[in-house]
Amino acid sequence: xTSPPYRICLVCLGNICRSPMAxxxxxHRLGKAGLKDRVQVESAGTGGWHVxxxxxxxxxxxxxxxxxxxxxxxxxxxxxxxxxxxxxxxVMDRDNLAELHRLAPTPAAGADVRMLRSYDPxxxxxxxxxxxxxxxxxxxxxxxxLTLVERAADGLVDQLAATLRDTGT
Length: 169
Ligand code: 4NP
Fold this sequence. Notes:
By secondary structure, this protein is of the alpha/beta class. It has helices at residues 18-32, 57-65, 94-103, 121-126, 139-167, and strands at residues 6-12, 39-45, 88-91, 112-115.
Protein backbone atom coordinates (compact mmCIF):
# COMPACT_ATOMS: atom_id res chain seq x y z
CA UNK A 1 0.00 0.00 0.00
CA THR A 2 1.30 3.47 -0.79
CA SER A 3 1.07 6.17 1.85
CA PRO A 4 -0.75 9.40 1.06
CA PRO A 5 1.42 12.23 -0.25
CA TYR A 6 2.85 14.84 2.08
CA ARG A 7 1.05 18.05 1.14
CA ILE A 8 2.61 21.50 0.96
CA CYS A 9 0.98 24.84 0.14
CA LEU A 10 3.13 27.85 -0.74
CA VAL A 11 1.50 31.17 0.13
CA CYS A 12 2.15 34.79 -0.85
CA LEU A 13 -0.11 37.81 -1.23
CA GLY A 14 -1.41 37.66 -4.80
CA ASN A 15 -0.47 34.10 -5.91
CA ILE A 16 0.83 35.44 -9.22
CA CYS A 17 4.51 36.14 -8.44
CA ARG A 18 6.38 34.56 -5.51
CA SER A 19 4.35 31.47 -4.57
CA PRO A 20 3.82 30.29 -8.17
CA MET A 21 7.58 30.64 -8.74
CA ALA A 22 8.23 28.68 -5.53
CA UNK A 23 5.70 26.03 -6.57
CA UNK A 24 7.38 25.45 -9.94
CA UNK A 25 10.89 25.35 -8.46
CA UNK A 26 9.95 23.07 -5.57
CA UNK A 27 8.13 20.65 -7.85
CA HIS A 28 11.15 20.57 -10.16
CA ARG A 29 13.54 19.88 -7.25
CA LEU A 30 11.26 17.16 -5.85
CA GLY A 31 11.23 15.50 -9.26
CA LYS A 32 15.02 15.50 -9.36
CA ALA A 33 15.12 14.00 -5.85
CA GLY A 34 12.70 11.21 -6.84
CA LEU A 35 10.00 12.55 -4.51
CA LYS A 36 7.49 13.70 -7.10
CA ASP A 37 4.85 11.16 -6.06
CA ARG A 38 5.51 11.49 -2.33
CA VAL A 39 5.07 15.24 -1.99
CA GLN A 40 2.26 17.28 -3.49
CA VAL A 41 2.81 21.02 -3.97
CA GLU A 42 0.22 23.73 -4.50
CA SER A 43 0.11 27.48 -3.95
CA ALA A 44 -2.37 30.18 -2.98
CA GLY A 45 -2.55 33.86 -2.09
CA THR A 46 -3.95 35.55 1.00
CA GLY A 47 -5.60 38.11 -1.32
CA GLY A 48 -8.20 37.30 -3.96
CA TRP A 49 -7.61 40.00 -6.61
CA HIS A 50 -6.03 37.69 -9.18
CA VAL A 51 -7.98 34.44 -8.69
CA UNK A 52 -8.08 32.46 -11.93
CA UNK A 53 -5.28 34.44 -13.59
CA UNK A 54 -1.98 33.01 -14.82
CA UNK A 55 1.27 33.96 -13.11
CA UNK A 56 2.58 37.49 -13.74
CA UNK A 57 4.38 37.75 -17.11
CA UNK A 58 7.57 38.87 -15.32
CA UNK A 59 7.48 35.77 -13.08
CA UNK A 60 6.98 33.54 -16.12
CA UNK A 61 9.88 35.23 -17.92
CA UNK A 62 12.22 34.85 -14.92
CA UNK A 63 11.27 31.18 -14.66
CA UNK A 64 11.76 30.61 -18.38
CA UNK A 65 15.18 32.21 -18.26
CA UNK A 66 16.32 29.48 -15.85
CA UNK A 67 14.60 26.64 -17.66
CA UNK A 68 11.34 26.34 -15.70
CA UNK A 69 7.81 26.41 -17.11
CA UNK A 70 5.19 28.20 -15.04
CA UNK A 71 2.59 28.49 -17.77
CA UNK A 72 0.11 26.08 -16.18
CA UNK A 73 -0.45 28.22 -13.10
CA UNK A 74 -3.84 29.71 -12.20
CA UNK A 75 -4.13 31.84 -9.08
CA UNK A 76 -6.24 30.81 -6.09
CA UNK A 77 -6.95 32.25 -2.67
CA UNK A 78 -6.05 30.63 0.64
CA UNK A 79 -8.95 30.27 3.06
CA UNK A 80 -9.15 28.98 6.63
CA UNK A 81 -10.60 25.60 5.60
CA UNK A 82 -7.37 24.87 3.73
CA UNK A 83 -5.21 24.46 6.85
CA UNK A 84 -6.64 20.95 7.19
CA UNK A 85 -5.71 20.03 3.65
CA UNK A 86 -1.97 20.56 4.10
CA UNK A 87 0.80 19.18 6.27
CA UNK A 88 2.95 22.26 5.75
CA UNK A 89 2.07 25.82 4.73
CA UNK A 90 5.08 27.92 3.71
CA VAL A 91 4.78 31.70 3.49
CA MET A 92 6.99 34.19 1.66
CA ASP A 93 7.03 37.03 4.19
CA ARG A 94 5.97 38.17 7.64
CA ASP A 95 2.83 39.83 6.32
CA ASN A 96 1.67 36.52 4.86
CA LEU A 97 2.44 34.87 8.21
CA ALA A 98 0.44 37.48 10.13
CA GLU A 99 -2.47 37.07 7.72
CA LEU A 100 -2.53 33.30 8.17
CA HIS A 101 -2.39 33.71 11.94
CA ARG A 102 -5.36 36.03 11.62
CA LEU A 103 -7.21 33.38 9.60
CA ALA A 104 -6.35 30.65 12.13
CA PRO A 105 -5.77 32.31 15.51
CA THR A 106 -5.46 29.00 17.34
CA PRO A 107 -2.69 26.53 16.57
CA ALA A 108 -5.24 23.67 16.42
CA ALA A 109 -5.77 24.02 12.69
CA GLY A 110 -3.87 21.24 10.93
CA ALA A 111 -0.84 22.42 9.05
CA ASP A 112 2.46 23.61 10.34
CA VAL A 113 2.97 27.23 9.13
CA ARG A 114 6.54 28.41 8.49
CA MET A 115 8.60 30.87 6.49
CA LEU A 116 9.89 29.26 3.25
CA ARG A 117 13.31 30.89 3.69
CA SER A 118 13.79 29.23 7.08
CA TYR A 119 14.90 26.21 5.01
CA ASP A 120 17.80 28.19 3.49
CA PRO A 121 20.62 27.79 6.04
CA UNK A 122 22.19 31.12 5.03
CA UNK A 123 18.94 33.01 5.53
CA UNK A 124 18.20 31.23 8.79
CA UNK A 125 21.64 32.26 10.10
CA UNK A 126 21.15 35.89 9.07
CA UNK A 127 17.61 36.11 10.44
CA UNK A 128 16.37 37.75 7.20
CA UNK A 129 13.56 35.42 6.26
CA UNK A 130 11.36 37.58 4.03
CA UNK A 131 11.20 36.97 0.29
CA UNK A 132 10.53 40.52 -0.90
CA UNK A 133 7.41 41.27 -2.93
CA UNK A 134 8.60 41.94 -6.51
CA UNK A 135 5.21 43.11 -7.85
CA UNK A 136 5.92 46.85 -7.93
CA UNK A 137 9.53 46.50 -9.15
CA UNK A 138 11.35 45.37 -12.28
CA UNK A 139 12.79 42.16 -13.71
CA UNK A 140 15.72 42.23 -11.24
CA UNK A 141 13.36 41.70 -8.35
CA UNK A 142 11.88 38.61 -9.98
CA UNK A 143 15.31 37.16 -10.67
CA UNK A 144 16.27 37.81 -7.03
CA UNK A 145 13.09 36.09 -5.80
CA LEU A 146 13.92 33.09 -7.95
CA THR A 147 17.42 32.84 -6.46
CA LEU A 148 16.04 32.99 -2.90
CA VAL A 149 13.37 30.43 -3.74
CA GLU A 150 15.91 28.05 -5.29
CA ARG A 151 18.11 28.15 -2.17
CA ALA A 152 15.18 27.53 0.14
CA ALA A 153 13.80 24.74 -2.06
CA ASP A 154 17.15 22.95 -1.94
CA GLY A 155 17.16 23.01 1.86
CA LEU A 156 13.52 21.98 2.06
CA VAL A 157 13.96 19.03 -0.33
CA ASP A 158 17.01 17.81 1.63
CA GLN A 159 14.94 17.89 4.80
CA LEU A 160 11.93 16.22 3.19
CA ALA A 161 14.11 13.48 1.72
CA ALA A 162 15.57 12.75 5.16
CA THR A 163 12.19 12.90 6.93
CA LEU A 164 10.30 10.78 4.43
CA ARG A 165 13.10 8.22 4.41
CA ASP A 166 13.25 8.07 8.24
CA THR A 167 9.52 7.75 8.75
CA GLY A 168 9.03 5.43 5.80
CA THR A 169 5.97 7.46 4.84
P1 4NP B 1 2.86 38.01 -4.98
O1 4NP B 1 2.94 39.51 -5.57
O2 4NP B 1 2.26 38.13 -3.59
O3 4NP B 1 4.29 37.58 -4.93
O4 4NP B 1 2.00 37.22 -5.92
C1 4NP B 1 1.85 40.36 -5.61
C2 4NP B 1 0.91 40.22 -6.63
C3 4NP B 1 -0.17 41.08 -6.70
C4 4NP B 1 -0.30 42.10 -5.76
C5 4NP B 1 0.63 42.22 -4.76
C6 4NP B 1 1.70 41.35 -4.68
N1 4NP B 1 -1.39 43.00 -5.85
O5 4NP B 1 -1.43 43.92 -5.04
O6 4NP B 1 -2.26 42.83 -6.73
